Structures are given as structure tokens and as C-alpha cells.
Amino acid sequence: MGDTSVIKVMSKNSPTGEMGQKYLASGVSLAMRLWENQQPNDDKEERARDYETVGYVIKGRAELHTEGQMILLEKGDSWVVPKGAKHFYKILEDFTAVEATHPPAHAHGRDEE
Which single residue of 30, 63, 71, 73 has CA 20 to 30 Å from 90? Predict the structure, then answer.
């Protein structure tokens, strides 16, 4: 018998985290989440996380501030935040992005405020 752990997750039914993220498909060592319609007044606080993040901008613009750099993120851009890097996002306009985290951000309290 083949691997039966293959799943489908519909974002409209996904749980939402305390920072507004929707949790999407998740495996043992990788997980996805969706930041949907984040507004300019939803700026995030600087923090370092115990996971690596890669992301892709679906719409809008934001600044990623990390380790003394500022990276402008626009529709079609992708980015990486290394594990342990201090960073924050400044949302410039209605922003939607999908991220993948390794290990999964939601496991073992890694994604808590």
C-alpha cells in the first residue's frame, strides 16, 4: 500500500492563528500558512523564530526588515528569513502572501506571540 498521509486542506476551512495567519497543509517537517489581506496598521513586532521561512507575495507590498537590511516585497517576489534571524514586516498596502516554514511554525508553540 502507498503512503496514505497525503492530504488536501481548503483555506476557507483552515484554522487561524492568533496573529491572523491561516494554517494550510502541514507535514512532519514542513508547513504552509497564508497571510491574507494584512493591512498597513497590522505591522508586526521584531522577533526571531525557531524556524526558517520562505514566502511568496500574492498581492500588495510590504517591507521586510531583517538583520540590518530592508527588503521591499511586491507581488511576485519571494523571500527567505533564516532560522533565528531578527525580523519584522511593515505592511505598505493590502498584503497577501503564502509562507512555508521548516520545521512547522505551528508545532510545539513556535508560532506563539
Answer: 30
